[in-house]
Amino acid sequence: MRRRVLFASMAATAFSPGGTRAQQKAMPVIGYLSSRGASDSIVPVTAFRKALNAAGYVENQNVLIEYRWAEGKYELLPQMAADLVSRQVNVIVAAGGEPSAFAAKGATSTIPIVFSVGGDPVKAGLVSSYGRPGGNITGISLFTTAPEAKRLGLLHDFVPRASIIGVLINPSYQEAGAQAHELEEGARTLGLQLRILHANNQTELEVTFKSFVQKRIDALLVTAAPFLDTMRDHIVSFAAQNRLPAIYQFREYAVAGGLMSYGISLSDGYRSVGDYTGRLLKGAKPSELPIVQSIKFEFILNQKTAKTLGIEVPPLLLARVDEVIE
Q1: Which of the residues 149, 289, 306, 319 could staple to 138 if both were Cys, CB 3.0 to 4.6 A apart?
Q2: Contact 197/208 with Cβ under 8 angstroms?
Q3: Residue 304 half-sphere exposure, CB side, CA atoms within 13 Å?
């Protein structure tokens, strides 16, 4: 509990909007625009700062950071991006997926932008190519949305008795359609039934929870989306209360008590974001920095949650796990 309070305190002080803004005009300023919230961004922001430090930039010593948190409300991002542009920041970090990236791109064609997105930035129209992005924007493709079918397969392998899978999707996220299509194809291959439900805000999420219970789902798959990340503890709690085996995109879900996660390492991805930000502050051109593609995927199992759910994991399956949380 004390650890949780400490994290909350860190989020409230270190990540508060405008909290690090000072009057020293000579100091460069980074605009950190995120579709997520401060409290669920401890891991990526810590990794980002460490990479900045390695590049020679220490927050509040020789660089300032203006944080803007949309808390999963994507409609706020364009105004937040415009505000950062009006403050003439030196670099904009568009964190938390496509919503932030598109908002930043729409706000300026001159200030350098580093994004982190979950899908294909070329296909989405953010950049011209992976090798030479063009314009004032470059970034990292975290491939958070690509392995949705893989997650479904892992859930099936570890909980073979589950035949009806509830799928939670954030329809306002740009990749939602592709995610649903991939999962439907995967379900047909595996002979599973899906109950796909949508949520754009906390009220809709509560309705979705009730619907999942009424539909008697056997397990839950939470798709990758910034808004859903802001609801992480809420979603994990729902799965626990209803004894639902569930799989998620990031390790942080398993740490919070979720059964399993499969996806990229957030720390690894945001170290790349920090590295690129440092390069841009030193004068590099975003058009000449190739898009970085995350290649480190990790499969995490919370053994304590598995035991609570009565799931006995065979040794052959356990050998596929990269990390076991006891």
Answers
A1: 289
A2: yes
A3: 8
Nearest CA among 116, 140, 112, 96 for reference residue 31? 112
Read off the pLDDT of residues 237-267 as tens digits, 9 standing for 90 and up.
Answer: 999 999 999 999 999 999 999 999 999 999 9
Pair 33, 260: CB distance under 8 Å: no
In sequence order, the β-bridge partners of residue 166 are 195, 220
User: pLDDT per residue over 151-164, tens digit each?
Assistant: 999 999 999 999 99
For the stretch 150-208, pLDDT in tens is: 999 999 999 999 999 999 999 999 999 999 999 999 999 999 999 999 999 999 999 99
Work out the pLDDT band at 296, boundaries 50, 70, 90: confident
Phi-psi region of 310 (alpha: psi -120 to 50; beta: other; left: phi over 0): left
- DSSP string covering 273-313: HHHHHHHHHTT--GGGSPPEE---EEEEEEHHHHHHTTPPP
Residue 110 pLDDT grade (very low, low, confident, very high; cuts 50, 70, 90):
very high
Q: Global pTM?
A: 0.86
Contact criterion met (CB below 8 Å) for 78 and 18: no
Q: Hey, what are 44's tokens?
A: 């990526």
Q: Given this chain, do its domains 2-143+265-297 and 148-264+298-325 carry the same CATH topology? A: yes
| CATH of segment(s) 148-264+298-325 | 3.40.50.2300
The separation between the first and the last C-alpha atoms of the chain, rounded to the nearest angstrom, is 18
> pLDDT above 70 covers what percent of the chain?
92
Beta strands in 205-288 (DSSP E): 219-222, 246-248, 260-264
Beta bridge partners of 298: 263
**Given this model, what pLDDT does residue 33 score?**
98
Domain boundaries, the chain: 2-143+265-297, 148-264+298-325
Report angle CA 73, 79, 83 to the nearest 5 degrees. 130
Q: Please tell me the CATH code under which domain 2-143+265-297 is placed.
A: 3.40.50.2300
